[in-house]
Amino acid sequence: MSEREEMPLDVLFVGGGPANLAGAIHLKQLSQAKGLEIEIGLIEKGDTIGSHSLSGAIMDPKALQELMPDYEARGCPVERSECRDAFYYLTPGGKLAMPYTPSYMHNAGCKIISLSKLTRWLGEVAEELGIMIFPGFAGTEVLYGADGKTVVGVATGDKGVDKDGKPKGTFEPGVNLTARVTVFGEGPKGSLMREVGKKLGIFENRMPQVFETAIKEVIELPGDSAFLSSPTTVVHTFGHPLGLSTKGGGFLYKMKDNRIALGLVVGLDYDNALLEPYEAFVQYKRHPLIAEIIKGGKVLQQGAKTLSAGGYYTMPQLYADGALFVGDSASMLNIQRLKGVHTAMKSGMLAAETIVEAFEADDCTSNVLKNYEAKVKSSWINDELYLARNFTQALGKKGVGMFIHVGAQYVTRGRGIIDPMAIEKDSFTLKELKPGVAAPEKEKSYDGELYVDKLTGVYLSGTRHEEDQPCHLQVLDMDICLNACFKTYRNPCTRFCPGQVYEMEEEGGLRLKLNPSNCLHCKTCEIKDPYENIIWTCPEGGGGPNYSIV
Ligand SMILES: Cc1cc2nc3c(=O)[nH]c(=O)nc-3n(C[C@H](O)[C@H](O)[C@H](O)COP(=O)(O)OP(=O)(O)OC[C@H]3O[C@@H](n4cnc5c(N)ncnc54)[C@H](O)[C@@H]3O)c2cc1C
Fold first, then answer.
1. Do residues 188 and 523 lie in contact, with contact meaning Cβ atoms separated by under 8 Å?
2. What percent of the chain has pLDDT over 90?
């Protein structure tokens, strides 16, 4: 294969989410103000900026306000500025309006947004400032200096390689993007973060990472929908269909143009091997409260994504020689508020401030880059995450125990009964199934408009991959799938994946069939596989979902 080109930059941002886009913009603003010449590049594996962005989302605008006080005047796409909350506990057929909503669930002053639209807009702002944006480029390898520990950039993946690894007529070698500082903002469960973690030990001596997964839709409601004319714009629920022993809950936000965002978040430390998050989402839609709101509607877009839910005690070391870690990649989401856009953006901005110091001191080693961790610790990111430091652990408790811990933390500003409270279950935990136990009946009455099956959901996410390319999902040991996993858990990959990427074929002998072109890049498989037998790597840049309104 032909030589790889090298492209030297001063600063490289890996990932085009809110963390890195805010970071790149702030770096440009600061360097221009100081007369520093800093060449900034940003790569994003999605085909365009925004195409892999999926969130709720209610955004606390404080970071954006700091970045661009005139963001609304500059055309920032806000769906709604009024957040009027409703909070319910759901039983299978009923609802209980919560008499008291904890302060962290109040959303007054926040904005309802589509993350996909927001990042696309931030990408345009960044480009106007002269930042080089490279969508369709996946970072596939971290580059290190001669000492083997200084990060000196990232290699992007080759394009035009066939499924056997041979170059096709369309072959384009990847590029080695070198930089004095590389900022990793890959979002939850980054594939390069995994490698950096192994090599540099940045996750050592921290609590284990915690993840949740979510399926989300944007639904268009009929113009005469009663919900559209009601004052409520934000609905949060817990209980049905997950009950009180599985973390998670539902959200419904009113957007523009008769649209709503509807989603269900499921904690990936669940232990029921037969649970299928997608089916739970459909059951959620069938609950009378939700079914009444969405009736007559049509799903416009669907998608799935994971979120980093661990927070304070799971945050890695935030710097290395030549590297900084921001946003969900560094576990900075506040799960108590189900908000990470503002903390991600602020972390990117603090990274930018540190990079300016490093360039001024002409030292991009940990000597100066460690200031970033100090800045995060003395910022409002730390204040927020510290208040929620034991929250994910409390939600991991079953039944009444969960309420006791959550309540105790509420009145003690996060300390609770035990501090630090241990994370008891990792995401790989599943209970062994008894012989003969079958998965529950699946929803059958999809209408293809408002209730859609997984494959229609994949279609509605716009997901597309080059078919003839090496499989980006590595199943390390197929024997485990066909023997141990089949017998013990009945292959939960066929259920936890929201894209129907994994199918077991029993006819003519048991076989695991992979459909990698359905992959929504949520990475639930790598997180939830009970044998840690699946590794998610980036497919050819530009492949994956094509979100535009979620
Ligand atoms: C269902 C759901 C609901 C949520 N609700 C809310 C909410 O209401 N309010 C709120 O504030 N937050 C919410 N969040 C959390 C919020 O979306 C995240 O905290 C935030 O998006 C994190 O930003 P980030 O930039 O760190 O990562 P991301 O937004 O995940 O962006 C990372 C980007 O990096 C790209 N990338 C990854 N790896 C590579 C690579 N190797 N090479 C190139 N590109 C790469 C990805 O394609 C992606 O575009 C929600 C999240 C989910 C999933």
1. yes
2. 94
Ligand 1 atom showing the smallest separation from residue 265 Cα: 1
E strand or H helix that includes residue 11: strand 11-14
Bridge partners for 505 per DSSP: 511
Q: Do 366 and 320 meet the contact criterion of CB atoms below 8 Å apart?
A: yes
Tell me the per-residue pLDDT of 126-144, one tens digit each, with 9 for 90 and over: 999 999 999 999 999 999 9
- The pLDDT, as a whole number, for residue 354 is 98
Q: Which helix (H) or strand (E) holds 199?
A: helix 191-200
Buried b (16+ CB within 10 A) or exposed e, 289-325: bbeebbeebebebbbbbbbbbbbbbbbbbbbbbbbbb
Residue closest to 340 by CA, chosen among 56, 44, 16: 56
Cite the beta strand spans of 204-318 per DSSP E. 211-220, 234-239, 248-254, 259-267, 298-308
Q: Rounded to whole angstroms, how far apart are CA atoms 166 and 1?
A: 9
Find the length of the chain. 550
Largest Cα separation within the chain, whole Å, is 70
Average pLDDT over residues 358-372: 98
| Ligand 1 binding pocket, CB closer than 6 Å | 14-20, 43-46, 52-59, 115, 138-139, 185-187, 190-192, 214, 216, 263, 265, 305, 307, 327-329, 333, 338-342, 344, 538
pLDDT of 1 reads 54
Q: Rounded to the nearest whole angstrom, what is the distance from the C-alpha of residue 90 to the centroid of ligand 1?
A: 28
Ligand 1 atom 13: residue of nearest CA? 339
The region that residue 232 occupies, defined by phi over 0 for left and psi between -120 and 50 for alpha, beta otherwise, is beta
User: What single string gives the DSSP state of each residue in 67-131?
Assistant: H-TTTTTTT---SBS---EEEEEE-SS-EEE-S---GGG--TT-EE--HHHHHHHHHHHHHHTT-
Q: How far is the CA of 186 from the centre of ligand 1 (A)?
A: 8
pLDDT class of 309 with cuts at 50, 70, 90: very high
pLDDT, residue 210, reads: 96
Cα 444 to Cα 283, 451, 454, 502: the distances in Å are 11, 10, 12, 20
Q: Note the pLDDT of residue 426.
A: 80
pLDDT band of 6, cuts 50, 70, 90? very high
- Structure token pair of residue 466: 């080059």
In this prediction the pTM is: 0.98
* Cα 274 from Cα 408, distance rounded (Å): 32
- Cα(468)–Cα(165) distance, rounded to whole angstroms? 10
Which of 245 and 169 is assigned the larger pLDDT?
Answer: 169
pLDDT score of 379 more than 70: yes
Q: Which residue has 């044998």 as its token pair?
A: 531
How many angstroms does the Cα of residue 229 sit away from the middle of ligand 1? 31
**Minimal CA–CA distance to 269: which of 246, 249, 250?**
246
Mean pLDDT of 49-61: 98
Q: Which atom of ligand 1 is nearest to the CA of 20?
A: 25
**For helices 341-361 and 366-377, what crossing angle results, to 10°?**
150
Mean pLDDT of 537-549: 98
Residue closest by Cα to atom 11 of ligand 1: 339
